[in-house]
Sequence to fold (293 residues):
Amino acid sequence: MTNEAAFIAAMRVLASHPGARGLADDCAILEFGGETLVLTHDMMVAGTHFLRGQDPADVAWKLVASNISDLAAKGAEPLGVLLGYQLGSGDARFADGLGAALAHYGAPLLGGDTVGGSGGRRALGLTAIGRATHRPVPSRAGARAGDGVWITGALGGAMIGLEALQSGDDGAGSAAYRRPVARLVEGIALAPQVTAMMDVSDGLLLDALRMARASGAAIAIDSAAIPLACPDSRRDEALRWGDDYELLFTLPEGTLPVIDASRIGTVRDALQGTVLLDGLPLDPAAGLGYEHG
Fold:
């Protein structure tokens, strides 16, 4: 096994519980005592998800936000988090950022584990636990032919933010990369409306492909309809860049979202499991977003 997709395919054999949703989603869904729990776990690695030497407070914020974003895509309110932490430089700053992020989302720290380590690439993990506010809990798999395809916010902000940070701007110019904001309020509001929903963490085109495959449908996207937080000349890059943490969702034709969002396409029944950009089917091997090699 040489890549993320191959490894996940092997894990699907083990993920036989219905709550795993066949590993075709970002969260596990567990019915428990009359409630529905939503669980997700994300990791971040130095040099891949954050810059070496980056302010640990910002790293902690992003670790929390990326997990809360998965809860948002399920319309779940946070109940708490578990932290997996590798000790190193800047531990006190990390604790400061963690506290700020958890306070922002109302998610208490419930526990976790710490390990030592020296050299190599620092790896951090966080498990977020939420309570579904609507059932059935939204998934990637519900998009149907004729649905409208929508997105919150604008794309490309994290891309520009990383470049600003690399140039020495650790202020407002790099905030979209350093301290993304999960669309928690929007996700909870949308949960009763959507037919499918997920967050955009690995690039719009790649994540749309994942939704199309899970739904057994084609997602046709109009690139000109996508709001940008970067120059228009970089539109193609922005559609493939991750870390924006916006919500991609589908609604029945004629339904308008209860929150501010932009319609960017339509679900079709032809060419199932594909993404069409401006009418042309995309080749998944052409690099639609970020995948772990």
User: Anything to note?
Assistant: The first helix runs from residue 4 to 11. The chain has a mean pLDDT of 92.
